[in-house]
């Protein structure tokens, strides 16, 4: 065999070891070349009488992240080209290409020799489907080891046998839940679920796998054995019929029917469990080919895999600036945001100086790190020693002089110009002359805040999203005089936190808040129009948003929405805000003291026990009450998405966003914009600029000028352009 991506050797007991170790890559991925070499290795094992079986392992720190999604993306593009040029029938070859991995794994599973897999580190997607096709699975007990099938998170589903093998190893309900969620599983959870056979120390996993083969391990999968019974019984049985109505209801509740890949999982499992394995795999492959051609999969793969991967690798980082590794970071403000930033920074291994007005306030901020780590310990995800080490890296103090040796200082004080100016000046007085200053403002323009810092070239914005420990996006904001070194340092810092940075230019609200505040406003205006509050929330979720606008406003603070509105009015005049929204927030905040979740009353009530519920008093704030049966539900969903997308187009025209990748990734990670669309600009591109402009005009005529398309959109509609064609990589390089 001429192997490049694998090493093949056989020991004295006749057990082969196939070590996957792709040259020039930090992570093994499944490519056409890898598939061809694995095929050759299977033939070699099956045809050699002196080989009892084979163990597959990895020569890298991780087993594999799965298939190269750009390869799968290529299948979809190939289908579109052939179908357009030669017709759909000629494009049938597409199906054969998309099921090649499934056929390869089935060949391994039925070759007659036992295959075992030894997994250390992550083993995800198509790589875990390879493991499931092996007859025995050993995983390491290392904290970094994870297995799973996360394809659904990029608009796909496991199409190389994953839906069929998981559904034959586990109870159907549990299998569907796993496939729907796409979560990564720790070793013990995977073993409890019956997905792996054995857990061992990392240094022993290969030996354990070999020992299983040497002791007579069988090269036959359970479902190929005579008399195999499905874990949940036959589909058409009393037990089986307890599963499927509930599964369908869960699917609709969780997806609002927006994710065809999840529906395809339901189909593939339901239909596949009624068939022999080979036919079941063929059914799965047909569904996979269908989903791979879907616009949702194309959009999600581009944004959540290709674009996000490029941004995480520093696509927007200045190339000429040497890499930096902040050793010590100062955080100004130990309130919720500052304390959370201190936690994620310390969790990334950096020393943190946490400053507040007095020792008690600073210590209270540090307590958040104690609580978050304790929560991790209670879930078995950390040890007491980990908590102690993290807390030792956080120095809480009111003394600004402690910032003297910090490489980077992050300001996260109250969203007030005067308060920020005071904190900035105090920090600047003691900071090193080469240290970078970053403001965590969410709306205030960076250029104006930089006026309080003596070195504006070293002043930059870093807008974290709440809750910081869970939200994966950070907006890095360039002021008019921000230098490349400040940008590079900020991006290196964000990437060290294992978060995704997007780079935006300065403006009020930057990118994310400009878009998401439109979403919140639309909910407010619908309420004042007389739309029932529950319908507002439900239509927003049906449109694809993770929560409704009223719930979201409660999370960020109804009083904050009021303050932002008043600041905008003071700076730009009364015409810059909506009077109906102002009246609503005035009544809620100033007359009823309803500030949101923070004081357990906002648009919702938050009882100490039980679930939150919409406040009964909302109906009393409406001058009119519309009959829900008279409302156009599709239009309501469009309003929620279009109000954000048209604002995103304005940020491009304003020069805030210069790269469509950042708008799409930022909109999904930052405020949950309908992921199945691929993001705010992909939503427009997918519809077509001409159709989007026509929709905007219809909505503007019915609901106001806030929906009016800008000049850029009208120009793109006239020329038949897309954002990715006009502003994408090729356009930037030109």
Question: What labels describe this entry?
Answer:
N-(1-d-carboxylethyl)-l-norvaline Dehydrogenase, domain 2; single chain; alpha/beta; 8-stranded mixed sheet; 6-stranded mixed sheet; Rossmann fold; 2-enoyl-CoA Hydratase, Chain A, domain 1; 4 domains; 21 strands; 734 residues
Describe the protein in words.
The chain is of the alpha/beta class. It has 4 domains: 6-293, 2-enoyl-CoA Hydratase, Chain A, domain 1 (Alpha-Beta Complex); 328-507, NAD(P)-binding Rossmann-like Domain (Rossmann fold, 3-Layer(aba) Sandwich), CATH 3.40.50; 511-631, N-(1-d-carboxylethyl)-l-norvaline Dehydrogenase, domain 2, CATH 1.10.1040; 632-734, N-(1-d-carboxylethyl)-l-norvaline Dehydrogenase, domain 2, CATH 1.10.1040.50. The chain has 31 helices and 21 strands. The strands form 5 sheets. The chain has an 8-stranded mixed β-sheet, with helices on both faces. Helix 14 (336-347) links the parallel strand 12 and strand 13 (351-355). Helix 10 packs antiparallel against helix 11. The chain is globular.
